[in-house]
Structures are given as C-alpha cells and as structure tokens.
C-alpha cells in the first residue's frame, strides 16, 4: 500500500449526462467545504479499462449523509435515503441516479454480509481499507484529476491481476458474496487470481450458502451475461462454489458422453463449450436455457453398445431435465416468467432436430412460437459444441444441417403474415358443430390451424367449409 500514491491523470472530461451530474455534485460538495469527495469503485476501474459502458457512478465523500441530504435538497435536487443507516443517499435528476456514500469504517460482521454497525469518518484511506479488491478501491477527483490509489489498483489492472484489499480470508468472512464477485471480475475482465487467494476461496466456498439466493442470482446473472461466461462458470466449478449453488449442475462434470457424438468431453465440458459459442445477442433466459439444457443427463445416463461401439444414452433427458430445472429454479429465485421460458427451452431443445420429420402444418406451428428464434440460438450452440467421430476415432465437423433447415423454415414463415391470422374462433366451432365449450373445441381449432399452416386452408370461407365437412 502506498499512502501517498496520488498521481494525476489526463484531464477527465464528462461526456454522458451521468458524468456531467457527477461532476456537478462533486463541485457542490467541495464548495461546501467537503474537499474529500471522489468518484469511486466500478466506474473508476472501467474508466481505466477504457470501457465504452462504464456503468453507474458512485460518489464517496467526507460529508455525512445528513449534510449531503441538506445540501442537495437546498439546491432543489431529489434526494432519496436509500441506505441512510450505512451512509448512502441517492441524488436523482432527470434519468440519472447517483449514490453518494459517506466514508466509513465497519464493525464486526455477524451474518457474512453486513456489519453490525458503521462509523462515519473523513479519511478516504480508512474507507478504502474496507473495500473488496484493489481495482475497486481507487478514488478519482473529477475536478482536479487527482487519483487516490492506496493499494496499486491501477497497476493491478495493467498486470491483469485480481487482488483482495488486505487478506482474502478477512474480506470473504466480512461479506461472503465476495466469493462470487471474485469469480465474476476474474472471468469478465480476463484477470488472474493468485493461487493462495484461489485456495482461500475454495476453503470458504460453503459460506456462499449464507448469502440470500437473490444476491447470488444477481451475481450469477452478471457472469452469464459476460462475454466470458464459460470461463466464469468453469471457475465456479474449480473453486467448489458451483456445488453449493447448484449441485445438479456440478454433477454434469462427472457425467461422461460417447466419443461417437461428443468427443469434446463430458456434459459439463459440452455445456461450457456451447455457452462460449452462442450468439452474442442471446438474452438471459436463452442463456439459462442453454446452461440447463442437458441437466437431465446425469440422471438418465445408461451405457450400451451401438454399431459395435460403446455408447452412452440419455433417453428422455429433456423431460427429466425440465423437472429438475423446475425444482431448482424456484429456490434459485428465478421469476415465474423466467421459469416458464427456461423450462420450455430445456424441454424442447431437440425440436429443431426433429422438425424435418414433421408434417408441414406442425412445422409451421412450432416456428410461429415467439420463443422459437431463441430456441434456434440454443440449438445452434448445442450443435456446434457436439463434435462427432467415426469408427476409427477421427473427429468430424459439427453438423448444422438440422439448424439450417429449421432456420430457413423460420425465416420463410416469419414473413408470411397470413399464417398468423386466426381463421376461426371457438365460438364459430361451437355454433357450427353445435357443441359446448370444452376440450373438443380446442382439438378442432388445432386441426384447422394445422391445415392452415400446411396451406390447405387459406381463408375463413375455407375453414368454415372444413367445419361443415366434420359436421357431415
């Protein structure tokens, strides 16, 4: 630690509305006598990484939360006491929110997450000592360009190293969510973490169960949305965190596959490979659908011989996987909407493979589902991560034949608006067939829809004539 490490940086020029607001708020606090006021944390880290999106801006100051509130309310700003107990208020203007937190030291941690008490101080060095990693403990003065870098965070960024402030053991025991944050920053920012710190994370991995599922999922979401999600998940497995977050996923690393279809490795290796190959525009639900798509294989694995070669089957793994995903998604705090889509992806991840053998009407019904485009993203990544071999053990390129066939149908149907128009209603069916509401109505409507998708019924008149045939 270098107590007098105060280099100047190139002039900081605000560009976004949030940066301009941060500069304005800092100037106001300084004018009111609170000279120790800085932008701190993730924004400063991302600024030095030259990221286009530097995320939210947080300000740290020697001013007390009461002083901050009074100063900005007098200036007609909206001030929200979001975490007043821990010294945080949020200043709101337009579409911008900036959290301002008073420098503090913290008492003992009783629940591996929050301190029992905090003490407000005016010393940025003492405030920096409580932070998690050196790269997150840099303080930037946007007015003067001065940087307070007590623990050489800037140098660690250049060396691509993740280091805890102080000792890893102490930081983790204070806040066990730092176990997940260490994995996220290491993978997302492509950093290295020392062997000793890695061993400390592994030793304390069980403490992640002390953290609320909501907070764990927030970190897992960020890992999944990272370009380097596969590395993040691999590190969760390496540090033993995965078995405490989802033992069902951890089992996949002990579930072998046959070389004839999956020479890339076991189910976990295949899953990570697929997650690294999925298109960059895949949304979070699609990514989780891919993460869980083969989760049923650990429970359905059977060893047989096929064509004279040892073979591992996973019969019905998509349905078993759907059940498993349903059981674990609630305690993992997925929303009902997320669960519905993820279960659909897991259950139907092989549908594009089967599409070629379906009747035309059934093909169209599948591809018209609003989720089918994302299902194709899952199937493409799954296919690219499946490396087959011949009887001599020679590797072949993954096949995208089924994917291309399904993609072509989806493209063709997507531009045919007439297929999306309903020709008949349930009331039509009940009136003409003279039946009451019930399952039979749905069966008839599906039959009409399938014939419409197959091109056999094109107008309402055609559909009504079809109903009259059924009646006769």
Blueprint (SSEs and pairs):
Elements: H1 17-31, E1 37-40, H2 42-48, E2 58-61, H3 65-74, E3 78-83, E4 88-93, E5 96-102, E6 104-106, E7 118-120, H4 124-128, E8 139-140, E9 147-148, H5 153-159, E10 161-162, H6 168-174, H7 178-188, E11 192-193, H8 195-203, H9 213-225, H10 229-238, H11 241-245, H12 247-250, H13 259-262, H14 267-277, H15 284-292, H16 297-300, E12 302-306, E13 309-313, H17 317-329, H18 336-347, H19 351-354, H20 360-367, H21 372-384, H22 401-414, H23 426-433, H24 439-453, H25 460-471
* CATH architecture title of the largest domain: 2-Layer Sandwich
Please state the overall shape, judged from the principal axes of the Cα atoms.
globular
- The CATH topology of the largest domain turns out to be Beta Polymerase, domain 2
Output the strand order for the largest sheet: 3-4-5-2-1-8-9
Q: Assign the CATH class of the largest domain.
A: Alpha Beta
The CATH homologous superfamily of the largest domain: Beta Polymerase, domain 2
* Average residue pLDDT: 92
Largest sheet: 7 strands, mixed
Tally the structural domains: 4
Low-confidence stretches: none
SSE class: alpha+beta
Estimated radius of gyration: 29 Å
- Count of separate DSSP helical elements: 25
Ends apart, CA distance between termini: 90 Å
What fraction of residues sit in β-strands?
A: 5-15%
Please estimate the helix content: 40-55%
Number of strands: 13
